[in-house]
Amino acid sequence: MSTGRGDRRRVVSCGWFIQGGRNSEVECQLPKLNVVGSIPIARSIIWFGLLFFLHFPLSFVSHSSIHSAFCAEWAFFAHFFCFKMKQMAQTYRERIKELIEPFIESEGMELVELECLRMKSRWLVRVFIDKEGGVTIDDCTDISQGVGDLLDVHELPWGSYTLEVSSPGIDRLLVKDKDFEKYRGHRVKVRLAEKMDGAKNIRGRLMDVLEDGGKKILVLEEEGKTYRILREMVVRANLEYEA
User: Which is it for strands 215-222 and 225-230: parallel, antiparallel or unpaired?
Assistant: First the structure.
């Protein structure tokens, strides 16, 4: 089946067990790059070329400086390219979230987290879903089908991509305020933007979620020690497995 999107792969998993769901392999020709710049990748390549040929000759002060100038120029372009790719991934993530979250909620499930990463030769879109009582393989398969169709119709992300849909697993991410309230009494691990007591990573049992002056405060306890952490200081948080 040809879609004009490139190679599309879908992977369905539940928890930490990877299983084959609706994996679809699509072999087709990538569309030609639009040289006027409407395609982000083509636009970036064109700009790199223009910047290189306009700026690089200025570095030829002497024959002995050619090698160092060349390395410096390409280090700049590599840094700039990585920055643009991260920027593009963030843009795709926001657009995909706006697109698929209403669909997932209409199916009685919750979008826990969404990742959009640029791999070596394709995009990787990871979708984590959950619902009361936990999700099943069938749930992941149905969401994979629906989300994949939405991505194809809206051509997000552009080019080849792999779509992975799974449950959050035993180390479920805590993203929203309601996640912390829901998992009171569970063991969690939080990574902070700044150090607290000499550490950015803090583990403990989430005892409470308080509000003080309009700000959320997480109360963690570990070995008799209590931590009061501002919610806004949390960069990443997830549950910890308890045997």
Answer: antiparallel
Q: Helix or strand or coil: residue 219?
A: strand
The second-level CATH assignment, the architecture, of 177-239 is Roll (2.30)
Q: Dihedrals φ, ψ of 113, to 5°?
A: -155, 155
User: Strand locations in 28-78, DSSP E?
Assistant: none
CATH 3.90.1150.10 fits 8-166, yes or no: no
List where CATH 3.30.300.70 sits in the chain. 8-166
Rounded to an integer, the average pLDDT of 171-197 is: 92
Does the pTM surpass 0.70? The reply is no
Using alpha carbons only, give the angle 4, 8, 12 rounded to the nearest 5 degrees: 150
Dump pLDDT digits (tens) for 50-73: 555 555 554 444 445 555 555 555
CA distance 236 to 89: 19
